[in-house]
Design goal:
Chain lengths: 365, 325
């Protein structure tokens, strides 16, 4: 989906590079026009994919939970767009945005939601458990805060192997109150692990506002561990990139971990099962959407920079919708796993019988 | 052949695997400078240095989870739990991450970690420090569980566990750390999932593992010498994978079974075994399957009563005589 219109190709010379603000930060100023378009396109693809998945859910094609990322797209896209070869990502169950941002295709993602064997986890993980280790994407984890020690471990692995990279370990504002998160902070600071703990603060953990769940500033807790920390607004892709670039450099170059809070907002309920009428006012959602929608904000900037024009905006949108529809068709047409697949992918040894060294039974029925 | 303590056999396995594979790293509380709470890792820090022998803070969820994450990138952490009893604070990491990550990723990830440490009663450390979670761990597909009883098995099984590409839970026993036995110096392996007949006999099969198996062997000798009864002792060694073939072959030979486990009875390893034996060798049985477990209460502190709570030789002898009757 990276075809560009010739109209834009012609516009290249006419584009105006911003000289001030986050857009002028080196990491953004160095972006080519094509790269900016692709970042915009990624956010639109995430949004359209999730809207399509919501419709599939309502049509009862998808089971279980569906935690939509709508409203938060600039966080995943901003952060993941900075990834180098040895940078890694791990997150919680609100994981569709990160998956698309690291470059996963929509087909296997939608198929995973449908529980199909063509899904990224062969239908064994579901919405909360997307994985793509080949793209340094380590999930997709359903236990609040449970992925955070793993993120520290990925950073440990990088350091152990002498690789210059960092692990961005995402969590929600509710996750910061889990013990495992604090254990991970301590280990990361104690051992100088190249990890950035990224708190995506969307204001709520299910129906509990930040004010009702957390004492003090979320990222400031890093101070207790002697780690650096920072806060940034998550609706402006340029800001996210400018901010995260510094933390990534510190992690990659100096093995310095940090805790960052990126302020964002989710438009939908906690999951699609949340009627979303008990803990926040509709006006709050409308206000954010009107003033801070990450796609609208970036679109406005790129229009101003003459990177985008309205025709291209429309084209990207149409293409993203079409791609999402096609992913639903793909998912629909794909087969379910069978009962024979239940006991595959449990043990490496069982999946590699020619290399099996152990005897005895691994399964008990 | 050199005679080593059980703890020395484990140490030798660690040292050999650390030497063989540069990705192996030993992590845990007090494993380095302190030489290990039970001196299992004594001397390893001096030999392998702090990159390979890592002292951790008291953060079981943190460092076990970290080990799991590192293993996804090809590090092979061997993580010591000072006591297996402390697995409870890291249980989420073990059962949700180590056990499930391969499955939930559709087979894209594997988790080659070993978690090892002692899991036993009998040392008067009370209920919080005397858990025997092999049944709980083995209940989670994706996890392997090993319980060595002898120095020879401890070394050979640990080396296999470290080379295994799945997460292996390795349950030792503080009461056995000082036990001595012959341990070859060479690079032998004891495969997971292979039980061993530790003593041949004809009239009764005792199926056991860990220290309960050692006690069962002593009882089998007593039965031979003082009662002229011939008892076969099968040491499971691995709980998952489980070598039922060896168990069933013995049942077909003796037609009577006593399961002895240092486990609380409810949903213990013995319950699973008894179910499988009756379902696969019902016609071979001349008597109901007998089972001796730890007496079903939290582990008591009071030293003499703790002895009575566990499957001691007296209780095993009584149960064996009943099973032979
Ligand atoms: C250990 C644990 N406790 C509770 C839950 C149920 N739960 C799922 S998401 C959630 C809220 C988490 O909110 P936050 O960390 O802010 O992430 P967000 O959903 O906003 O992305 C809760 C309570 C869980 N999955 N895991
Ligand atoms: Mg939240």
């Amino acid at each position: 989906m990276s075809k560009k219109s010739s109209a834009i190709a012609d516009d290249r010379n006419a584009s105006v590079a911003p000289k001030t603000g986050y857009a002028a930060a080196p990491v953004n100023a160095s972006l080519s026009i094509d790269q900016k378009i692709e970042l915009y396109r990624l956010m639109v693809r995430i949004r359209r994919f999730e809207e399509r998945s919501l419709r599939a859910y309502q049509a009862k094609k998808i089971g279980g939970f569906l935690h939509l990322y709508i409203g938060q797209e600039a966080v995943a896209v901003g952060c993941c767009s900075l990834m180098g070869k040895n940078d890694h990502v791990i997150t919680a169950y609100r994981d569709h945005g990160h998956a698309i941002a690291v470059g996963m295709e929509l087909n296997p993602l939608m198929a995973e939601l449908y529980g199909k064997v063509t899904g990224c986890s062969k239908g064994k993980g579901g919405s909360m458990h997307f994985f793509d280790p080949a793209r340094n994407y380590w999930g997709g984890h359903g236990i609040v805060g449970g992925q955070v020690p793993l993120g520290a471990g990925l950073a440990y692995g990088l350091k152990f192997k002498g690789l210059k990279g960092a692990c961005m370990t995402f969590m929600g504002d509710g996750a910061v109150n889990q013990g495992a998160v604090h254990e991970s902070y301590n280990l990361a600071a104690l051992w100088d692990l190249p990890v950035i703990f990224v708190i995506e603060n969307n204001g709520y953990s299910m129906g509990t506002s930040q004010a009702r769940s957390s004492a003090g500033d979320l990222a400031r807790r890093a101070e207790a561990y002697g780690m650096s920390w920072g806060v940034c607004e998550g609706h402006d892709l340029y800001e996210v990139r400018a901010f995260m670039a510094k933390h990534l450099e510190e992690a990659r170059n100096n093995c310095k971990p940090s805790v960052v809070e990126i302020r964002t907002y989710r438009y939908r309920g906690h999951s699609v099962a949340d009627p979303d009428n008990t803990y926040r006012a509709k006006s709050e959602i409308e206000e954010y959407r009107r003033t801070k929608d990450p796609i609208q904000v970036f679109q406005a900037k790129l229009l101003e920079e003459k990177v985008l024009d309205l025709a291209l905006v429309e084209k990207i949108d149409v293409e993203a919708r079409a791609e999402s529809d096609l992913s639903a068709d793909f998912a629909e047409a794909s087969p379910f796993p069978t009962a024979d697949d239940l006991q595959k992918d449990v043990y490496w040894e069982a999946d590699n019988p020619s290399e099996r060294k152990s005897g005895g039974r691994l399964f008990f029925n | 052949m050199p005679v080593l303590q059980y703890r020395e056999a484990i140490r030798q396995a660690l040292a050999e695997e650390l030497t063989r594979d540069p990705n192996v790293v030993v992590l845990g509380e007090e494993v380095g400078q302190f030489h290990g709470a039970y001196k299992v890792t004594e001397g390893l820090l001096a030999k392998f240095g702090p990159k390979r022998i890592v002292d951790t803070p008291i953060s079981e969820a943190g460092f076990i989870g970290m080990g799991i994450g590192a293993s996804m990138l090809g590090v092979r952490p061997v993580i010591e739990l000072m006591f297996w009893s402390f697995y409870s604070v890291a249980f989420d990491q073990i059962l949700n991450n180590a056990a499930n990550v391969r499955y939930m990723s559709g087979g894209q990830i594997n988790c080659p970690i070993v978690i090892r440490g002692p899991a036993n009663g009998g040392t008067n450390v009370g209920a919080t420090h005397s858990h025997t979670p092999e049944n709980v761990l083995a209940n989670h597909p994706g996890i392997k569980v090993v319980v060595p009883a002898t120095p020879y098995d401890a070394k050979g099984l640990l080396k296999s566990a470290i080379r295994d590409n799945d997460p292996v839970m390795f349950l030792e026993n503080t009461m056995l750390y000082g036990d001595k036995g012959e341990v070859p110096e060479d690079d032998y392996l004891v495969p997971l999932g292979k039980a061993e007949v530790k003593r041949e006999g004809t009239e009764l099969t005792i199926v056991s593992y860990g220290r309960a198996m050692i006690l069962s062997l002593a009882v089998a000798n007593t039965l031979q010498q003082e009662h002229n009864r011939s008892v076969e002792v099968v040491d499971l060694r691995s709980i998952r994978p489980l070598d039922m073939d060896t168990v069933l072959a013995s049942v077909r030979k003796t037609h009577r079974v006593l399961i002895v486990e240092e486990q609380k009875p409810f949903c213990g390893v013995g319950a699973q075994l008894a179910y499988m034996i009756q379902s696969e060798a019902f016609d071979e049985l001349d008597a109901p399957i007998a089972r001796l477990s730890t007496i079903d209460s939290p582990s008591i502190y009071s030293p003499p009563v703790e002895v009575a709570q566990l499957p001691n030789t007296e209780r095993i002898l009584k149960a064996a005589l009943e099973a032979l009757a």
